[in-house]
Design goal:
By secondary structure, the chain is an alpha+beta fold. The chain has three domains: 88 residues, 2-Layer Sandwich (TATA-Binding Protein), CATH 3.30.310; 117 residues, Pleckstrin-homology domain (PH domain)/Phosphotyrosine-binding domain (PTB) (PH-domain like), CATH 2.30.29.30; 31 residues. Helices cover 28% and strands 37% of the residues. It is built from seven helices and twelve strands. Strands 1-5-4-3-2 form a five-stranded antiparallel β-sheet, covered by helices on one side. α6 runs antiparallel to α7.
């Protein structure tokens, strides 16, 4: 059996020192071994456990500080398919509210989840990017598989997580050309036109399709930082140099030069 690697992004809502202080007992509670802990890196050994049907694994975390936040990029290397479960076990030992959940619980609180959807909800954070925020959640079917539909500020995704398998389908917000909603007694259906192809998410709970489509359209109408319009930047130094040249050549008088210089500096 080949070794598999999985990567997960965490953000702890505290500084590095406090983050490191709470990680050690959380790792111990999970019955793992912390082999290295520095302000930059973490190394953890996961033991083989026949009782828990758990393969041995190596977890490596790279730390990046950001003001009062601590970002950790985890890489889990091991056999089997419980890579994410190892990190969930560690997260269960952290103080409540310390780990940024990407807005998942807030979005889920507005949805009447079916029982089977709860394992996808617990797993959803593992497939999100750093800084990505969930705006709406629904439970439905995609390509005849039951799972979680989630609209974030970056994409619409469908996650099916079952024993021994995981399917993640993503529709980026920028590439969604149209999204339509159909309501029926059996539930709501989203039809997504994405990069020239069509996909449907069916049997969503009543109101869930509405929430998802509103979240997608809101994200489409919110400029991303790279899309935001920006005012032309003023090359103040270059313009001052040109004013000085004009003044030196006698084209601008002393008063005109000083007035133009003051205008540039004040802007």
């Amino acid at each position: 059996m080949a070794t598999i690697s999985r990567t997960v992004q965490w953000t702890l809502l505290t500084n590095v020192d406090e983050a490191l202080a709470v990680l050690t007992p959380a790792v111990e509670q999970a019955q793992f071994t912390m082999t290295s802990l520095t302000p930059n890196e973490i190394a953890i050994d996961v033991p083989r456990s026949l009782r828990s049907n758990q393969w041995a694994a190596k977890i490596h975390g790279t730390i990046a500080a950001d003001a009062e936040k601590t970002h950790i990029e985890w890489r889990v290397d091991g056999l089997g398919n419980k890579h994410y479960k190892h990190l969930i076990k560690i997260s269960e030992g952290l103080p409540e509210g310390l780990l940024d959940d990407h807005g998942i619980q807030e979005a889920a609180s507005h949805v009447a989840l079916r029982i089977f959807g709860r394992k996808e909800i617990a797993h959803l954070a593992n497939v999100l990017d750093r800084g990505e925020t969930v705006k709406a959640i629904g439970v439905g079917r995609f390509e005849n598989k039951a799972g979680i539909a989630a609209a974030t500020d970056l994409r619409l995704l469908f996650l099916e997580k079952s024993i021994g398998s995981e399917d993640l389908t993503t529709f980026s917000i920028g590439a969604i050309q149209a999204i339509d909603l159909k309501k029926a007694l059996g539930g709501e259906t989203l039809t997504i036109n994405h990069s020239g192809t069509k996909a449907t998410i069916t049997t969503l709970g009543h109101g869930q399709g509405d929430s998802l489509i509103r979240a997608v359209r809101a994200a489409q109408n919110t400029p991303r930082p790279e899309q935001a319009s920006s005012a032309p930047t003023v090359d103040v130094i270059g313009q001052l140099e040109r004013l000085a040249e004009l003044h030196a050549k006698g084209i601008l008088t002393e008063s005109e030069f000083l007035a133009q210089k003051e205008r540039l500096l004040s802007s």
